[in-house]
Design brief:
- The structure is a single chain.
- By secondary structure, this protein is of the alpha+beta class.
- It has 2 domains: 194 residues, FAD/NAD(P)-binding domain (3-Layer(bba) Sandwich); 178 residues, D-Amino Acid Oxidase, Chain A, domain 2, CATH 3.30.9.
- The chain has 10 helices and 21 strands.
- Strands 4, 5, 6, 12, 13, 14, 15, 16 and 17 form a 9-stranded mixed sheet that branches.
- The longest helix is centred in the N-terminal third of the chain and has 20 residues.
- The termini are far apart.
C-alpha cells in the first residue's frame, strides 16, 4: 500500500510512541496522525521485553513528577475506568546492608518530605516474613570473597508495582484509533526525509546554505514509499541513532543490553513459599526485591509460578551506538551463572540449584549524562529518547510532553493537572534535577 501525507507521523510503537501518538491525537482530534512500527504489533520490542515495573521512588523532582503522574494515570485506568492493564501494586523492597542504610537515610528523609511513602523493616522482621532470606552470614563463606555484607534492614515503597506492557500499549493504541488515528504495522522507517524549505530543483539538495527540515520518512513493508508529514516523532528507543545519524543529528543516547531470566518454583516448596510471601501487599506475594549493592533484582510473577531475575550492571557492559536487529540480541546463560546466581544464592539459598527455564534480552536506550529522558524538537523532527529503562514508569508523562512539543507549547499538562515545562527535557539548556538515589 503506498504511503501518503499526514500532519504527524510517529515512528515506533513502544510505550513512548504509543503514548505520544494518543496524546497528540487527543489534543488534536482533527489531525491526520499515523503511528508506524516495523513489527507486527505494538510493544513487541524493548517494551515487551522489559521487567514492566514502576516506582515513584526518586529524589529528583523531575523523575518523581514524571513517574508519579504516570502511575496515577495507570491507577486511574485500572481502578476508575476498569481498564485491564495487569496492574499489581506489589511494592518495591530494597534490601540493604548497614552502610547502605546509613548513606541512604538523608535521601529517604528528603523523599518522605516530598510525599514518597516508605516503611522500614528490620532484619529480624524481614527474616520472620521471609524465612528463606539469609540476613546473617557464617564466617568463612563465599560472601567474604564476593564482598557481600549481611542484610541490616529493608526499605519498602508502596506506590510501586508491575503491569502488563502489551495491555498498556494497546490501551493507548485503541484510544488513538478511536480518536481517528491510523496505525501501520509491518512498516519500517528506512530513512528520514530531509528537504530544503525552498526547493530549487537542483541535484543533491539540500545544500549547506539552504534552510532544511525533516519532512517525513521513507518506509518499506505494508506501507512503502515516502510518508510526508508536518511533524515526525521519532520514538524508536535504542534504535534512534540509526535514523538520526545519517542526517547529521543525534539522539544523545546509547543502548545497553539487558537480560531477564525466568526461574520457576515447581519442585521447590521453599521457592514457592517465598513467591507467596504475605504481609507486604494485598497480592500476597513478595515485592519486587532489589539485593544489596549488586543491581540484582527479583520480580515475583504469581501467574507463572515463577520469578524473573535480572541485573542492571553498568561496568563491563558495553554501550552500543546503533544496535543490531532485535533477533540478534541473544541472552547469555553465562550472565546468570556468573553474575546473578552467585549473589542470589547467598541471600536466598533456595536459588542455589535453580536454573532458568527461559531467558530473553532487550535494550535500554540510555541517557548516560543524567538518566532522564530527552524530548526535543530539531529541524522538523521530535525526538523522544533516553528513558534509560524507565519508559513504562514515566510513559504517560513523556507522551504528554511529546504532544506539547509537537504543539509548540511551552508547557505540558500532566495527568492530575500538573504543568511541566517541555524545555526541561531538551538537550540544550537542560534544567532537570539529577537523580542521586542510586543503589
Amino acid at each position: 500500500m503506498p504511503a501518503g501525507e499526514y500532519d504527524v507521523v510517529v515512528v515506533g510503537a513502544g510505550i513512548l510512541g504509543c503514548a505520544s501518538a494518543y496524546h497528540i491525537q487527543r489534543l488534536n482530534p482533527g489531525h491526520r496522525t499515523l503511528l508506524i512500527d516495523r513489527l507486527p504489533a505494538a510493544g513487541q520490542a524493548n517494551t515487551g521485553r522489559s521487567a514492566a515495573m514502576f516506582r515513584n521512588v526518586f529524589n529528583s523532582g523531575d523523575n518523581r513528577t514524571l513517574a508519579d503522574t504516570s502511575i496515577d494515570y495507570y491507577v486511574h485506568l485500572a481502578r476508575e475506568k476498569d481498564v485491564d492493564i495487569g496492574l499489581e501494586m506489589i511494592g518495591y523492597l530494597w534490601l540493604m546492608d548497614e552502610r547502605q542504610l546509613k548513606e541512604s537515610a538523608p535521601q529517604v528523609q528528603a523523599m518522605e518530605r516530598e510525599g514518597v511513602e516508605f516503611r522500614d523493616y528490620s532484619a529480624g522482621e524481614l527474616k520472620k516474613m521471609m524465612p528463606s532470606l539469609t540476613t546473617e552470614f557464617q564466617p568463612g563463606g563465599e560472601h567474604e570473597l564476593m564482598g557481600l555484607e549481611p542484610v541490616a534492614g529493608g526499605l519498602f515503597a508502596k506506590k510501586c508495582g508491575a503491569l502488563r506492557p502489551e495491555k498498556l500499549v494497546y490501551h493507548y493504541v485503541d484510544e488513538f484509533v478511536r480518536l481517528g488515528g491510523k496505525v501501520a504495522f509491518n512498516t519500517e522507517a528506512t530513512e528520514l526525509l530531509l528537504e530544503p524549505d525552498r526547493k530549487l530543483g537542483l541535484e543533491h539538495e539540500p545544500f549547506a546554505w539552504q534552510e532544511s527540515r525533516i519532512t517525513g520518512v521513507a518506509v518499506r513493508g505494508d506501507l512503502h514509499g515516502e510518508i510526508r508529514s508536518k511533524r515526525t516523532v521519532l520514538a524508536t528507543g535504542a534504535w534512534a541513532n540509526g535514523l538520526l545519524e545519517p542526517r547529521g543529528m543525534d539522539s544523545h543516547t546509547k543502548a545497553k543490553k539487558r537480560q531477564i531470566f525466568r526461574v520457576g518454583t515447581s519442585g521447590s516448596p521453599e521457592l514457592g513459599g517465598l513467591l507467596r510471601t504475605e504481609g507486604f501487599s494485598e497480592h500476597k506475594t513478595i515485592p519486587f526485591v532489589i539485593l544489596p549493592r549488586s543491581g540484582i533484582y527479583i520480580k515475583p510473577v504469581k501467574s507463572e509460578n515463577a520469578f524473573w531475575l535480572g541485573c542492571d550492571e553498568e561496568v563491563n557492559r558495553a554501550y552500543i551506538d546503533v544496535p543490531p536487529e532485535l533477533d540478534e540480541l541473544q541472552p547469555e546463560a553465562s550472565h546468570y551463572e556468573n553474575n546473578i546466581r552467585p549473589v542470589l544464592k547467598e541471600y536466598f539459598p533456595a536459588f542455589a540449584g535453580a536454573r532458568p527455564s527461559s531467558m530473553w534480552a532487550g535494550l535500554f536506550g540510555i541517557n548516560s549524562i543524567d538518566h532522564l529522558p530527552y524530548v526535543f524538537a530539531e529541524s522538523g523532527v521530535v525526538v523522544v529518547a533516553g528513558d534509560s529503562g524507565s519508559g513504562i514508569m514515566k510513559g504517560d508523562a513523556i507522551g504528554r510532553i511529546a504532544a506539547g512539543v509537537c504543539e509548540g507549547s511551552d508547557e505540558a499538562r500532566l495527568y492530575g493537572g500538573a504543568s511541566y515545562s517541555v524545555g526541561r527535557l531538551h538537550y540544550r539548556d537542560r534544567k532537570v534535577e539529577q537523580e542521586k538515589w542510586l543503589l
